[in-house]
Amino acid sequence: MRIALTRAVSPEIARCELTHLERQPIDAARAAEQHAAYERALRELGCEVRRVAPAPELPDSVFIEDTAVVLDEVAVITRPGAASRRPETAAVADALREFRPLRAIDAPGTLDGGDVLRVGRTLWVGASSRTNADGIAQLRALLRPFGYRVEAVAVEGALHLKSAATLVAPDLLLVNPAWLPPAAFDGMAHLEVDPTEPFAANALLVGTRLLCADAFPRTLERLRRHGLDPLTVDASELAKAEGGVTCCSLVFEA
User: Fold this and answer.
1) What's the number of domains the chain is made of?
2) Are the beta carbons of 38 and 244 closer than 8 angstroms?
3) How far apart (Å, rounded) are the C-alpha atoms in residues 43 and 178?
4) Which of 10, 56, 64, 72 stands 20 to 30 A from 170 (CA)?
5) Which residues are catalytic?
6) Three-state SS across 97-115?
7) What's the whole-number mean pLDDT along residues 105-112?
8) Which residues, including other chains, have CB under 8 Å from residue 97's CB and lie 6 or more apart?
9) CATH of the domain at 65
């Protein structure tokens, strides 16, 4: 059984943390509609969607990916780089306890799940404004007993590593080379986003299927020419909060 943990859009989402985007009005009701459609897409891709208890007082709580790193053997509860987001983790830990033993990142480490890209037994971790060297070192130590390799990648110009690179097939990355050099990934095969669509590199691989935002038609066409068949959703309101399709779920095998 494949589980997708999600969390409702906060009515306060317009007060979200922003790093690289100018603040603009966010329609919370429309964002909630888009999130519901996103959950329907996850079900279409074979997930059982389970919602963590809502946190209307926490503007960024819909972006549940940042609160945990869920692997086959263990789940690591993160310590988000934005202090305002740290209260998000307790309810996610409670939800994950049913499925995995838990570990946690402690101060002074910071780690956002959006900075963690898993490729097999390797975790590429973005050294970003939200994830620091201590957080990466703690993750490496926590996962060493399970046989995972943790490699740091410098991230500039993007909020998270997965803003600039994601896995779109078992052996293929989708990358924005303006934000992250593909060579950082040990020569893995990669496909570049269309240069006019810098935010298109964020895609969610669910089993063998791919979920993408519908805002990037040129990059979607590149994916289709490569033999992929992405399912698309409208995530335009969530994008105003620096969110993408990976951000809004934690997908794992139960």
Assistant:
1) 1
2) no
3) 33
4) 64
5) 160, 247
6) CCCCCEEECCCCCCECHHH
7) 98
8) none
9) 3.75.10.10
Question: Is-contact 193 201, C-beta < 8 A?
Answer: yes
Residue with tokens 């603009």: 24
Name residue 54's amino acid.
Answer: P
pLDDT at position 132, please?
A: 98
Residue 106 has a pLDDT of 98
Q: Which two tokens stand for residue 36?
A: 């519901």
Q: Give residue 216's domain range.
A: 2-253
Q: What percent of the chain has pLDDT over 70?
A: 100
**Distance between CA atoms of residues 181 and 157, nearest Å:** 12
Residues 6+ apart with CB under 8 A from 40: none
**pLDDT score at 186:** 86
Query: Taking the alpha carbons of 180, 186, 187, 189 in that order, is the dihedral positive or negative?
Result: negative
Task: Give residue 132's identity as a one-letter amino acid code.
Answer: N
